[in-house]
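Morning F.,

Quick status update on the modeling queue. The single chain you submitted on Monday has been processed. Sequence for confirmation:
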Amino acid sequence: MELSALIKKQIDADERRGFPVRFGSDSERHDQLMRDLVGLIGEAGEFADLLKKVGLALSTMGYVGPSLSEAAPRLRSELADVAIYLFRLSTILDGDLEKDVLGKMKINEERYRYLER
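Structure tokens below.
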């Protein structure tokens, strides 16, 4: 499935569930952007917290925590949650995330060309 189709599928589901992406005013749109930003940061925080526990298990004698392979499915799930919030934020801003990412990759290609080996 292409990214644009994946985004459409998620946004359609969000709208059916009462999570809007279209608003009558900039104030309403700003409020939703703020709520979704908090959601995005929360999901990234869950990823970071779990990864921290993996690191502690690797580096701290006696700390009982998950291995990276044990944590990987949940880490991927948290990243999927992050992606969903990115889909929403981009859509609320009337963006095309697929196009925007490709454009940024092109910029980064030039910006970081000197690092290539």
